[in-house]
Amino acid sequence: MQVSLVGISHKTAPVAVREHFALGPGELPEALARLGERYAGAAVLSTCNRTEVYAVSPRGIGDPRSIVALLNEVKGGPPVEGAPFFALSGREATRHLFRVAAGVESMVIGESEILGQVRAAFAAATAARTHSVALSRLFHSAIRVGRRARSQTHIGRYAVSVSSTAVALARSTLGDIAGRTVLVVSAGEAGKLTARTLRESGVATMLVTNRSAERARELAADLGGTAVPFERLDESLHRADIVITSTASPDFVLGRPRIEAVMALRSNRPLLLIDIAVPRDIDPDVRDVPGAHLYDIDGLQEIAQANVNLRRTELSRVEAIVEEEVSRYSDWLRSLEVVPTVSSLRARAEAVRLAELDRTLPRMKISTADRRRLEAMTSAIVKKLLHAPIARLKTPGEGERYVEPVRALFDLDALSDNDAPPIP
What we know:
By secondary structure, this protein is of the alpha/beta class. It has three domains: 2-157, Glutamyl-tRNA reductase, N-terminal domain (Beta Polymerase, domain 2); 162-306, 3-Layer(aba) Sandwich (Rossmann fold), CATH 3.40.50; 340-419, no CATH class. It is 51% helix and 12% strand. It has 15 helices and ten strands. The strands form two sheets. Strands 7-6-5-8-9-10 form a six-stranded parallel β-sheet, sandwiched between helices. It has a four-stranded antiparallel β-sheet with strand order 2-3-1-4, with helices on both faces. Strand 2 and strand 3 form a beta hairpin. Helix 5 runs antiparallel to helix 6 (133-152), helix 7 (162-174) packs across helix 12 and helix 13 (315-360) runs antiparallel to helix 14.
């Protein structure tokens, strides 16, 4: 079995491209179902910063463009041609997932949200029944890497997550944020976390709105804020100093004309807009509106750099953990290839031994005790003859290269059910 990866991330593509391939909760089951028809195991890790397809199959994924085409079909609409996807296989694919889980590949190095997203990706694969033994071991190993990285190093000590970066951005733009008003327009998990962090940092008022009044009340209760009707969005925008958007809308929620109208009534009071949705909630042209300060998920990276260097000092320790776990998983994965060959080799030898005993013993007039001695002797001979080849097959890092020669020399692929030894 081989682990393969086809993906796109903040390192290879801007948010405008990434948002096309981001799979929402309603799209993920279809994508997994179609991947499950092709591969022995499949999982999709889709976040605001990456969409990555992990597949397990005997001979790899073949042409990675077929997976990109599948994602385009699931998303619908005009396909994005020539998107900068990357493909990895074997140890490189395993290493990449482990680095992702450890926070090394994140926009904000060491951020903790990604570990929960890795866990959710595997949970979705399990629910879709596209998991397998190899995929399960891969993702459980990745989660272990993420936990070790955070417990055995200081990669997550310095606050540079999306939420803490948003707080730093608010302070750099507005100065003291005590007494400020925050407006939350809907809220996914990242939006709620950002709002809570701002609340803990001293903002005075938290307004929450949503197209669903019931959902707005639930979010307000969760965030310790006040629900406001979505129909009064303009009024809420006028009151707010900081706006956080994190909806699942496929279209812009806040366009330039609306923000221009709001800013005309604010008497030069600045408005900070933090758009952490993918697809984006706020028209990028809002950046040109005087007094409006818009940052999307990519823009937050600039603010995060202040603490990134502090976290980089921990990278070598995290990389050591990653390499240790990559070797452990790779050795285990190779053993999946070796074990069937060892079993088949033993079965072939045992079938030959029993067949020869059945052919010879009826012609001999020997006691039951002597018969047992002959059976024991032939069994011992077989074990001694197989000891060296089986030991070589089980040698970590080397055994897999003997699999094909052994199967060919002993004609193991021709082993039929009739050749197998009886079950005691």
